[in-house]
Amino acid sequence: xxxxxxxxxxxxxxxxxxxxxxxxxxxxxxxxxxxxxxxxxxxxxxxxxxxxxxxxxxxxxxxxxxxxxxxxxxxxxxxxxxxxxxxxxxxxxxxxxxxxxxxxxxxxxxxxxxxx
Amino acid sequence: xxxxxxxxxxxxxxxxxxxxxxxxxxxxxxxxxxxxxxxxxxxxxxxxxxxxxxxxxxxxxxxxxxxxxxxxxxxxxxxxxxxxxxxxxxxxxxxxxxxxxxxxxxxxxxxxx
Lengths: 116, 113
Hints:
Shape of chain A: globular
Radius of gyration of chain A: 14 Å
Helix content of chain A: under 10%
Low-confidence stretches of chain A: none
Order of helices and strands of chain A: EEEEEEEEEEE
Helix content of chain B: under 10%
Low-confidence stretches of chain B: none
Number of helices of chain A: 0
Mean pLDDT of chain B: 92
Strand content of chain A: over 45%
Oligomer: heterodimer
């Protein structure tokens, strides 16, 4: 049981290049999320998915796209990278939960992306 | 949407002392409040959580209190140890529309030996 696995761990891009970050979870979680973490700003939600084939925008979606073709995978794409997208990206997953039994987020180890 | 403010941004305490981190939230419908600990270079991990129908929850040296009327919740760490040094994030889960956690900006806790 690996939990949430992110690839790659590190990446350096030039402005304008594209890339895809892969997140895979083996816990059969319905919900998956992509966050970015910047110094002094906590974790901000980029996009999320409440099930296979569905995605939705979070707090900071501009410049990113996502896909959830399979329940266990959630892909984050950068079509044309910008220096402002330099950040640490975390994927997370959870069960939907209810008001009385909310499910905590399980995070991956993160991807450190630098855009020059 | 929900807005979570966290204070202080940095906190230094002597080993053995207590540490308190406070968060306020804006959405009165929020009903779930987890706390995450993130050690340097690692992933955030849940350390304790509390639901809106409970005022206080304790797990060994860690406790969380919730004041729904004032819309604030706090993390209390007693008998701090060097391994408690980390960044701590609070979060709140709004009732609607989708169940997305909103995080505070984090507190860097340093426990001095």
